[in-house]
Request: fold
Amino acid sequence: MPYAPTTTEEQQAMLKAIGAKDIEELFAMIPGELRMDGELQLPAAMGEMELSARMSDLAGKNLPAGSGACFLGGGCYDHFVPAVVDFVASRSEFYTAYTPYQAEASQGSLQAFFEYQTLVTQLTGMDVSNASLYDGAGAAVEAVLMAINATRRDKVVVLDSVHPEYIQTLGTYLTNVKTTIKTLVTVNPDAKQCAASPAALADILNKETACVLVQHPNFFGCLEDVEALAEVTHAAGALLILAVNPVSLGLLKRPGQCGVDIVVAEGQPLGIPMTFGGPGLGIIACSEKFVRRMPGRLVGQTVDRRGRRCWVLTLQTREQHIRREKATSNICTNQGLMALRASVFLAAMGPMGMRQMAELCLQKAHYALDELINTGAVSRVFEQPFFNEFAVRVKGGDPQKLIDAAVTGNIFPGVPLGRWYPEMNDCMLVAVTEKRTKMEIDMLVELVKKT
Amino acid sequence: MRNQQTTELLFEQSRAGSCAVHMPECDVPARSLEDMLPEGATGSPPPLPELSEPDLVRHYVNLSTQNMSVDTHFYPLGSCTMKYNPKRNERLASDAGWLGLHPYQPESTVQGVLQVLWECQEMLGEIAGLPAVSLQPAAGAHGEMTALLTAAGYFNDTGQRRDVVLIPDQAHGTNPASAAVAGFRTVEVKSTPEGFVDLDDLESKLDEKTAVFMITNPNTLGLFDGQIARIAELVHEAGGLVYLDGANMNAILGIARPGDFGADMMHFNPHKTFSTPHGGGGPGAGPIAVAEKLGPYLPRPVIARDGETYKLDFDRPKSIGRVRSFVGNVGVLLRMYCYILTHGPDGLRRVSENAVLNANYLLNRVKHFLPVQYGDRCTHEFVATAGELRDRRGISAMDIAKRLIDYGFHAPTVYFPLIVREAMMIEPTESETKATLDAFAEALFRITEEPEDLLHEAPHSTTVSRPDEVLAARKPVLKWKGEG
Amino acid sequence: MKPEDLLYAKTHEWVCVETDSAGAKVATIGISAFALEALTDLVFMELPEVGRELNAEEPFGEVESVKAVSDLISPVSGEIVEVNSDIADDLEKMTEDPYGAGWLIKVKLSDESVLANLMDHAAYQKQCAEEA
Reply:
């Protein structure tokens, strides 16, 4: 037994103390007819060497985009992860601890989460952040549920330029409850438009609208006029929920200054490896007035009996273990270790690091687009200003051919859009991070030229 | 030894001009920002703290020492299964061949990870005795909700209007909360004085509105409810489905399978049963396994195998849709995969045998001074009560929990389940030695003999003792608000 | 207000019925000292808005301590005409003066018959003794 250290001799002594003749007797409360016949049909146990060989063999069947020239985005990005992030996250005092319910035994995690909450408010300009949720999609859903709760209204407006998987997730959550989702069509490839018009939004809002979910930069990388959208949303008495790319906040105006009520984000770009899309980090931050409707864990500052500053989980009556079916959410854990990674990342980058990183993404993405267009083999789908991601149409066909051809050169040119938008099945979404060198971009351009 | 200065908040240590990361020069021709972005779109850099890499390392390493953890202390936190987190799993899941995978890469380039995920589906289906598996849910509570939505999908598709979820009074709070999020009404079912489901009460609440009965078995008292087959029969007769909360699977791996004893759906907690690290509260994962008839309604995509090729199968017209972005918490599932392969069928069974042996041994040592209301035997955990100590000497379960920290043990779960007064839920797991259990039992006994005042003010050895929770909740301070 | 003169609900709210200048019956509602003690340190109170119609036995708000939350149940039916919104910011006042400054809402009664379901002080004292 690899991880059960009790020896046979000790087992006998323990059984004797219990007064049981064998281990089997301890399972007497499970009626015989409910027991399994025979053994589980699973592969035989492997030692560490065999397991390592197997895992290395399996990992070898992957061609990780992160080890090549990765131009893939759509909510998961190949950003640089400083070694200090991996180092801190590998401290097992952090990763083998659990939820800090016993404050005295968990000040390390509690303070780290309090710092995370502060860092997220600094990044977003919002009043309050929780200690994290599962992922960006989950955060968007929880924000919508918060808004429904806060406004006591039951219509949700979603822009069709929000990440399609966020929209699908929201749809799944809300199928069985009395809430309707209305999609505002803003994506119009024929008109080369994918940003929302405040007037069009105003037209579909009414007294029943709880909230509007906007992504900025949107799924296609384009910027939205957040302040104008917030204004018309508030005029209807609804709340504006903004999904952001956290890296863009090194450069773009912070949502807290744009009239946003709730900000959500996928925190993966902040020092979290892609790992095929999970675990990520659900960031959620809001205005002070919604704090008691916030889902998930919150860490608060207080003093101990000797008057020393310290931290505890607080406002727990919102949560499922106290309020049960009336809780603000069913969420129980946060993404503790991922929140820790994001904290170390943000603290390591600082204001200037975040600004430089965002500018590199912006510059390189614009260079890539210009060079790609110059080949004449692709065209730009949308004309709006963008951050580090853009959609291109591959002339004469299927982007999948280009993508498949690129694999041999270890280039990952983009995410085909046809899977979500059949009318864009000749388009792909290209993302450029600070990691992409001019040489890699030029390689992509050469490839596009050739294919 | 604690270094006070470096554990001041990051923001208090900030020094203008410090930076731990230096970005490379821009190697493409730079354009002006105004040329690329509309007026008013940009802002000043976010006011983050400024620190050097040595500052950060010393800060976090010192902070980490303010935690108790499985790697440093016995952590008998009931219902959380704080077992050893194998180091080989950490190493093997950290290969660039996994970490560098983007979820939208071509399928031909991700065959290794798809094979692992497909095998995870198969293995979990086998352990559950329920063949259809979804790996999407990000945590146990997320799994509960996903399974309930799957059930709702099934009922809607078969034209049944069922909107009530029945939940025992001893259930974990996520059960009713998940049911509410999934759009169900909840009705509570009582427990008998012996700690099992009150069958009469259950029967009286079953009707044509019953959608699902959620049960944790072994239950939150650490007892296996042997009536489960009868319960499943009753629920099925009423047209409902049985959901098994898999929080306590560590007691029955390879011994009894939920699908065999009547469950139609269940979730696993890999961070409990399969040793993936708790991470200070996540990330976990909450894969679910369901009966064949419910399979078509599971979230899409699922992982499918076609000969020797693996693929993400989106073509599932009856699916409830997705419950998150991408495919799941793959990093967690990789560790789970390593754990299951390390053990094999016999090893998994022995995990449960040792977990149950350890719990019964500890119960046997503790019951003499902290009564265990519900019997002399348990599965992988048990619930002792400090109710008598409270009445006689004013010592609460919380006092004992806090004092244990002074003895170098993490506290058990206290005040859960709600149906036991001054509850202390103790789960030793299989990865502890007899010597550790003996030391823990002795400490617990000594504590019950200690003076009241000493206990009310415990812990005494930590840098922080008895934080003022009332102050924290009355005037919430949820972020650093500047100097002074 | 003297506790002896008030009516009480099983759920520990107190009621004081008076006639306003227009001749309508208005009930002032609060929480009993016994219940406040059982709730221990209050940290948060959520109260309704003026104008809402309440039915007897319907929740009208919530009161929270650190580890528990309880519904506030209306003992009477009618329209809320006044809310003691300052109390939420000064919860200690509730414990200091539960029958005076600690009142919560005033309700213009739409149905006086529900008052018959409430207890007088003696009956309520008896209930408290049993619960303690």
Chain B touches chain A through 198 residues (CB under 8 Å). The mean pLDDT of chain B is 96.
